[in-house]
């Protein structure tokens, strides 16, 4: 089992959180706290970079849902970028893929969210 590594940083007015390793019951609460802190420090327009995420269980899904709810209530959004096929399948099977914007790459996610912000529009749940 590869331990979860999380980094959070601002990028072009967005909060980018990169996940590497496995997200499960053992580290879900740590991620929940990191996401709260990142939103507090960098804002509620959040992109989760999932390229390095190798596994996610229901506890990880719960953390993403909680972050999505909190960010949208504050006028922001949560987007997912570059999920591996196994993680994308989990999102599809649970129905989260229809509630959250999922982009094939970080570059696409950042570009779409910056464009939306510049136009003053609401964050879309579908990639543009």
TrEMBL record:
<protein>
    <recommendedName>
        <fullName>Anti-sigma factor antagonist</fullName>
    </recommendedName>
</protein>
<dbReference type="Pfam" id="PF01740">
    <property type="entry name" value="STAS"/>
</dbReference>
<dbReference type="GO" id="GO:0043856">
    <property type="term" value="F:anti-sigma factor antagonist activity"/>
</dbReference>
<dbReference type="InterPro" id="IPR003658">
    <property type="entry name" value="Anti-sigma_ant"/>
</dbReference>
<dbReference type="InterPro" id="IPR002645">
    <property type="entry name" value="STAS_dom"/>
</dbReference>
<feature type="domain" description="STAS">
    <location>
        <begin position="4"/>
        <end position="113"/>
    </location>
</feature>
<dbReference type="InterPro" id="IPR036513">
    <property type="entry name" value="STAS_dom_sf"/>
</dbReference>
<comment type="similarity">
    <text>Belongs to the anti-sigma-factor antagonist family.</text>
</comment>
């Amino acid at each position: 089992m590869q331990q979860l590594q999380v980094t959070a940083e601002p990028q072009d007015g967005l909060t980018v959180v990169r996940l590497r390793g496995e997200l499960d019951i053992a580290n879900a609460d740590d991620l929940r706290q990191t996401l709260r802190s990142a939103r507090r420090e960098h804002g509620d327009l959040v992109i989760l970079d999932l390229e390095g995420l190798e596994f996610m269980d229901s506890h990880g899904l719960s953390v993403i849902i909680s972050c999505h709810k909190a960010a949208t209530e504050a006028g922001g959004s949560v987007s997912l970028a570059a999920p591996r096929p196994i993680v994308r399948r989990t999102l599809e099977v649970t129905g989260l893929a229809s509630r959250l914007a999922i982009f094939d790459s970080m570059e696409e996610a950042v570009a779409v969210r910056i464009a939306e912000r510049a136009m003053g529009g609401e964050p879309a749940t579908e990639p543009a």
